[in-house]
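Today's session is about reading a structure prediction critically. Students often jump straight to the picture, but the first step is always the sequence itself: look for stretches that repeat, for charged clusters, for runs of hydrophobic residues. Only then move on to the predicted structure, which in these notes is written as discrete structure tokens rather than atom positions. Here is the chain we will use throughout the hour.
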Amino acid sequence: MRIVVIGSVAAGTSVAAKARRNTEDAEIVVYDQDKDISYSVCGIPYYVGEEVETIDELTPRNATWFKKRYNVDIFTEHRVTHIDEVKSELQIINLQTGQIIIDSYDALVLATGAAPITPDAFTHQKWRNVFQVRNIQNALSIRSYIEAHQPKKATILGAGFIGLEMAEQLFNAGLEVTLIQRGKQVMKHMDPDMAFRVEKLLRDKGIRILLETTVTEVVGKQLVTALKTSANEQIDTDMVILATGVRPNTQLAKEVNVTIGATGAIQVNKKMQTNVKNIYAVGDVAESYSLITGKPMYRPLGSTANKMGRIAGDVITGGGLEHRGILGTGIVRVFDMAVAQTGLTEKEAREAGYDLAVLYNIKPDKADYLGGIELTIKAIADKSSGRILGAQITGVNGVDKRIDVLATAITFKAKAEDLFHLDLAYAPPFATTKDPVLYTGMALDNALKKNPLITPAELVMRQQAHEPLQVIDTRSPKQYTVSAVEGAMNIPLANQREMAETLDKSIPTVTYCNKGVTGNAAQNILLNLGFEEVYNLSGGNKNYQLYLQMKK
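Below is the predicted structure for this chain, in token form.
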């Protein structure tokens, strides 16, 4: 058997490695048009910012190493230009010599990855200080430009993972950074209220953010000196980073009538097979599907690419692995903040038809007396089944382990009540006695069964609709005076029972405190006293005030 792989980054090399582990009988050949193989795209911003000292740390393996370790022939700077699926042949050009090569295959794997999207204003010309962040040559070019020219101002287009990582690294290197985003928020895969926490941090650090803005004109010939925007502003700049997303490299696939899915990536089955016999697709060129909805999903991440490659390599050599779908779990560091999400967002879940309970859980990552720092967990559950559907977390420490626990729970279809019963590790330097994950499960389960929650967005909407509501601030008069929910009356928790007689039990009532715990205690008192409909404001006044800031 002759296995040919087109592409040699995360997915392609995983195909070759797994296939070789399964059999010594196959010939395995990999072609890649780039100079480097098996490199870390995700590490590029940290090389630019010199957290990673040498480029070799991002390129730990080369073709010689692969040949020695796996007996796999990898040809770099070789571009596959044509596939003949009838003859099972490929046409390849050696980019160094121009020589045309014909090769054959028994199994062909498309691991052609994705190409960076170039905004319209940058498509008609090349500038020496405009960079994309996609491969090792990009990394070398950006860092060498900074070292040689000492730029003072950088403009970044795109506020996804790469855009935010580059903003952090360039700012830390002493540059004045402007971040331009076409959409209404940074981090489009988050809900707006959680993304706003990231935006606020960036602004507080001194990064200028322009939302709902595009570049309409580039000023400068060989070097960009300024950008004109859709807001009729001219931004002076010394360098530009294009981080506006990627699109799958499907040209070769289309040539042989491989089906392209709804996401724009190649449609594959659970064995990574395309609709064309003996042709597979993996990594950033292939679409996945949601573990929750079962619908096609495109989330190009190195972790998913490695998984897909391993599955294809196993299937081709007779194994039984299958792709089980993804949750789109992701995490990024933005200065001191870690930002993570898994599963469906609130918006996605509602669009999918779920009736939701939505929780904002604000808790320290470990014991307060050992320096615990707040995490904010937004979690959603389906009201009819209780199943956890998604979570988003912002915080400083412990975000990664909490999102991984929640991703695992969602993968195995856990309900809100199941989270509370998890036997998670506890010691004061690492967690609180009720870990934030356990508390998330407890509070969501309560919301589903007895103690309903209301989000700031829902409260504001009902107030604007002039619905009759009693809003009770359960904090001290001093806290109430500093900031409070609009229209709220101040009844501290200690006075709840005696003051309850002055309230109308038939009117929907909202209780709140600073973050949610005392509000829940007041909610229980009022429900036990016969109030018909009592909600606790999720995330308390702290979350409510952030929501108002976002809506300004």
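Discussion point for the tutorial: The longest helix spans residues 302-316.
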